[in-house]
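Quick one: structure for this chain?
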Amino acid sequence: MCGCLFAGVLLLSTGIAEASPGVVSRIESLFEGIGRNLSIFGSKSEELLPSRIGAPPAQRRNGLSGLVEHTREVRESCPVARGATVSVTNHFGTTRIDVWDIQVVRIVATISAGGETAEIAADAARLTDVAIAHSDLHVDIGAVLPDILSPGRAAVIVDYHITAPADANVTVTSAFGELSIHGVGGTLVVDSRYGPVTLDGIAGRATVRAAGPFDVTVRDLRQGGAFELSDATAAFSGIDGPLQIRSYLGTVEVRDLGPNAQIDAAAESGDIRLIVGEN
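Got it. Here's what it folds into:
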């Protein structure tokens, strides 16, 4: 069938969100190391925060500017059972998660260390440990930073590219870095601070908290989810199932709804646009 359907735009006026306690309590923050990392980067951490949305990827590396850099790579593969949970914590650096049809979690971590001398940078990279706790049903991934880090003397960024089984459940805690997750078939839990977030082709229900003036892009969300957003510019498309959105200070656009989509959205000091009948 072809033809042009009426495209309606519904602008929801600003109101005070009454988020259910479950949305707030579902995600427990794991940011105990952020204070230490911010002190490590010192005043350079201010350069990681853009004045507005869409900072270039290179900006996140400003914490290493003025330092000699040394890079090393860590690779690990962890066999898991079906329906395993993969948990990732990354306080500074990018995190990318893809899926494949193999019951193995593949981890590639790129450690970029900066130091006031080449020797300090090499030591910082060598002493940074990518800690992996592994069982048949769980893989927990996170960096352990060395004690030699100090403002203006040494700093570390860790970038992850993780490939998980398509049926895995995924939990990610991310700060000061880009986060992109593609194709996860199980449940997804995300806690992101100060970095753009991209979610694409998520087959399970998603529970997401994102804070900071960055883009949150969600495409092909097949079982809906709950999103708690602060100062974000969020775009949702290809949505099916019940979707709850609570937004503060940011803007939200929702379009391309599936037959089972149910939208419950509220904003405080921001706008929500629901675009329906678009073809």
